[in-house]
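Bug #77: duplicate submission created two jobs. Keeping one. Sequence:
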Amino acid sequence: MSDILIGNNNSVKTQQVDGMSSSAPSDGKATDRVSAIASVLQDNILTGHYAPGDRLPSEADLCAYFKVSRPTLREALGRLTARGLIQAKRGAGGGAFVTQPSADLVSDQISALVAMATRLDDYAHRPLLTETRIQLQMGCADLAILRQSDISDMRAEIDLQSDFAISEAEFVASVRRMHLALASASGNASMSILAQGLIAAEFAITPTEGYPTRIRARFLSYHVRIANGIAGARSEDVRGALTELWGFEQNRHLDPEDDQPPAERPPRMRDLRLPPVQRLTPLQPAEDDSSDGAAPDGS
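Kept job's structure:
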């Protein structure tokens, strides 16, 4: 186990990274060194050691840490830039900064699939989209409970939805924000991005009419149960409410006057769990790396 420098504005702190050494691989191949450095930095970003907006250590610090020259390091950083993980900023206070993940790409891809299904009158895809969102929200709720997340944003939307004087469009917008707040409460950027993409695509084709007071009250009751379940750390209550909400959303158009719960509950997918962080492969010293470029300066 060794320390790696973590840049944060003008301050420098250290972070323990299990199984990682600061030296480069021993096979002498520049491509392997580049891959190893990019992998180490990527793992540090994806596991949260570098948060969105954080500045990476300077090139000089990273070159000294990995014992490589500047061209090798820049090629590794270029790979991270190509993957959208970092962004270079020039000028005073510049450097390599961890990017804020975006749900745009996820949303665009899902929206394209839904739009195609709609054009083909294949409405079976809509329930699948909602089911995916519900199952992902179960994982988000579990993490919100685990992290004892603040759910004040969810409570605010529940308060708004309880005002039946608001328009149907305002109610639908509040439901969308409620789902986004639940995703954010997970505290997991990856799951939040996936949920944002699903929600954006789903609500892009969600009608903003057909929500009388009785229907709103049913939605509200599920939302209250979800929020109360998270606040009370009752995972099964939350999962039960989300499962019933899924059935209600799929079946309410068949007979709006039927207040009976759906006869058949959707199949439960395996519980979503955070993948374990893989142990980083130790890097071995390289004796010939200094030949691929000038030694780093003190910048």
